[in-house]
Every structure is written in C-alpha cells, then in structure tokens.
Amino acid sequence: MKLMPFFVMLLFLFSFSGDPDHREHRPPNVVLIFMDDLGYGDLSCYGALDIETPNIDRLARHGVRLTNFLSSQAVCSASRASLLTGCYANRIGISGALFPGASTALAKEEITIAEMLKANGYATGIFGKWHLGDVPEFLPLSHGFDEYLGIPYSNDMWPIDYDGVPVKKGHFKAWYPPLPLIEGNRTIDTIADLNDQAMLTTRLTDAAIDFIQRNKKNPFFAYIPHPMPHVPINASPEFRGKSRQGLYGDVIQELDHHIGRVLETLRKEGLEKNTIVILTSDNGPWFNYGNHAGSSGGFREGKGTSFEGGHRVPCIVRWPGHVPEGMVANQLSSTLDILPTLASICQAQLPEKKIDGVDISAIIKGNRDAHPRSTFLYYYRTNALEAVRRDNWKLVLEHRGRSYVGQTPGKDGYPGKAPENVFFYTALYDLRRDPSEVHDVKSVYPEIVQELVQLAEAAREDLGDELTHRIGKHVRPSGKKSN
C-alpha cells in the first residue's frame, strides 16, 4: 500500500511526458493566411461558381465563416499595415500602394502582430508579399519577424508587360527594377517571367511548412500573405486547365491545394488542436482585369473603392475546441480586429499606442449576442474619408473615385478601363436590405444621416480627412528612409 503514491507519481510523469512540448498547455500557434485581391465570391464556401476549394471549405466546416468582415482599406499597402498593427492606415501614415524605393514605410515604432507575439515567446515568420517598405531597414526582420521569404511589393511591379514580355524603353513599366525574391534582408533570386510567377505559391508554401516543422516545439506565428491572385496570375503546370473558370480558377484551386498542405502539416505534426488558423484577403477583386479577376459575390464595385465590393472579403477562423464547427457569424468585424483578438487569445500585451481594432474573440467563439464593433470608417488613398458605417447603415460621402460600372473589362491579363474620377453623391444605404448599395434612402431616414454625419465629423477630428482639408489630432508619422 505504501508504494501506491510512487506509482501514482509515475503515472502522472508518464502521462505528462507523452506531451513533451506541452502543446495543449502552451499559448496557441497562429497561422494567418492573407490572400491578395481575393474576392468575396471566389471560394466555393462563399458561393463561387466553377471554382472548387475543398481544403478551404473544410476549414470553414470546422470553424467559423464570417460574412460581414471588412478589409480596412481596399488597397495593398494600407490594408497590410492595418492588418499587422490594428490601426487605420492613415493613423500610422500609410496610404495606397507603396512603389519600389518608396521613401515612406511602416514606422519601426509601430507594434506589429509579430512583435507582439515575439515578446510572448513566439517564433515568427513571413512567407509571401510584404509591401510595407522595400529597403532593408523596413523589411520584415525590422518589424518582429525572425524569418522572411517573399517579394517586397506587388507582383505586377516589374519591367514585364501584360503578355509576359520584357518592356522596352519608354514603357510606363520600364522604370521598375527586376522583381526580387528576398530571404531575410538579401535578394536570393529574381522573378523574371510568368513561369517564375507560377511557382511562387509552391515555393512560399514549402518555406512556411518548413518553418512550422522546425518550430513545432514552441509557439509560432506563421504569416502567409500569398502574392496571388493579384495580377499577373499564373498557375504551375500541374494546375493549368483544371478549373472551369479559366486561369483565374486554376490559380485559386492551386492556392487551395497548398493551403491544404499547410493544414495537413499541422495535423501530422500534432499541432492542429492548438493552432488558430485565420484566412482572409486584403481587398476585393480588381474588376477591370476581367477573366483574370475574381468575383465580389454581388457586392457593388471592387478593389480601390469604398463600396462593399472593395472591402467585404471572406474570413474563416478555425481553432478546434474553441471555435464552434460550421458556424456562420454575421456581426460586423474587420482586419483591424485581428491584432487585438490575437492579443486576447494568446495572452499577449496590446500596444501602448492607440489602435482601432477591437477584440472579436467572443464572436468567433460563438457568442451571437456579441457586437464589439458597431462602426467602421471607409478611407482610401491619402486619407480621404469616403464613407462611414454604423451597424447596417452606411453613409457614402460625396467624393470622386474609381468605378468599374459601365466599363468593358479586359481579358487574358490586359486591363480594361477603370475611371478614377467618377463623382459619387452622398447616399444612405441599409446594408441589411440592400447589400449591393443600389437604393439611396437618405430622404427616408434623415435622422440616420445626421447620426452618421456626426460619426464622420468625429473621425475627421481624430484621423483627418483630405476631402474636407482636415488634419487629424491623433495621427502618427510613417517611417522615413534614412539617407
């Protein structure tokens, strides 16, 4: 009988040693997959036609699918700055899409998801498109990432024409440098043609899987911002001609395949239960590229606009045992909210400086009464406030901007027209009844208009507004390239 405590102790030690890295007892790993120009209607679980995405659909079946999720801004650099910092991009001095050699970038003083989690003991890696400054002092290793493999800006910023042929002197793309593939802070290869573009998804996924396998005994943050399906698109030979939606569908189905490889790695390594996976997009589809662009799922307009087609994007979150399987969440949420949500889930410290995101962990855990976000501000370009939203009411403010309506789209890699100076009048939309923003009801609900005008005024006071020549009181400077 005296030996019983000893055997009990052995049993305890044996059971604990069966989990040598204590994966069920440590903070969850994070895999954040960020697509480029993926539209709301480009995944079969969001209603895509003639595109099959079985791996992403499975992710949705075992997690939560958010249907009222907004990219912070409908353009590359601004949306990525917001995702990583939880701030409206204009709060931190980022606007539009940064070009190669840009003198501004994400400031080192801003805290990214990578820095926040690294301070909590996470290994951090990025495998894909950065687009927040391309000189070494602004690359990911200066923003909390331990490892980086990817391209520094969009894959169309290269001296190659739409047909894949190098441009000649005098062409508007002739000033672009060769598109580099960077590892750490060093260029290791050049994306020289469309065949190289076709292999990007495979190459970046291989690196992400290697990172996960090497860091499986410690908490990790794997950020996978795929350059595709941003034009120019191409698929590897294995996937060309496989979809019923042409090359664009092939690209999406290849992305789905490689996302499946990441998910299978998590399963094989015993990491699935303790890993939160988030998949979303930086903005809606670039419509004027026609059959090389995606679908907004019926929402109005697309990338580069403040209508829902530019901002409304897919978002899927899976975290076994914490996120209900097969749930659909319709509450308002945004890429702004990912940083504070991960801070809550991973027990990390929020940045001391003001952010604009809110914790939506209650939503993804199945609380249908949770509404942590009730408002949203639609900015574009250099700090132009183009619309405001409270719950399902959206007030589009008077502005000039991009429109794809009435324009013949391009084909096979060539763009159609997308005028940038179209005038939009003030209009009020009830997104619950009219998600396509067709019926202006401002004359029916003048009291709602006044409430939203007050919201716009508060935003202009806080963040400024180029359209009304307002300078915000609480904006911070971007990073500046040293001489």
Topology record:
Elements: H1 4-17, E1 29-35, H2 54-61, E2 64-66, E3 69-70, H3 76-85, E4 104-105, H4 113-118, E5 123-129, E6 147-151, E7 179-183, E8 186-191, H5 194-198, H6 200-214, E9 220-224, H7 246-268, E10 275-281, H8 308-311, E11 315-318, E12 327-329, E13 333-334, H9 338-345, H10 361-364, E14 375-380, E15 384-390, E16 393-396, E17 399-401, E18 422-424, E19 427-430, H11 446-463, E20 464-465, E21 470-471, E22 479-480
Parallel strand pairs: 1-9, 1-10, 2-12, 3-13, 5-6, 5-9
Antiparallel strand pairs: 2-11, 4-22, 6-7, 7-8, 10-11, 14-15, 15-16, 16-19, 17-18, 20-21
Helix pairs in contact: 6-7
Features:
483 residues; Alkaline Phosphatase, subunit A; 2 domains; Arylsulfatase, C-terminal domain; 4-stranded antiparallel sheet; 11 helices; alpha/beta; 24% helix
Helix content: 10-25%
Average pLDDT works out at 94
Tally of contiguous helical segments: 11
* Low-confidence segments: 1-22
Give a short summary of the structure.
This protein has 483 residues and is an alpha/beta fold. The chain has 11 helices and 22 strands.
Can you describe this structure?
This protein is α/β, with parallel strands linked by helices. It has two domains: 25-374, Alkaline Phosphatase, subunit A (3-Layer(aba) Sandwich); 377-480, Arylsulfatase, C-terminal domain (2-Layer Sandwich). The chain contains eleven helices and 22 strands. The strands form six sheets. It has a ten-stranded mixed beta sheet.
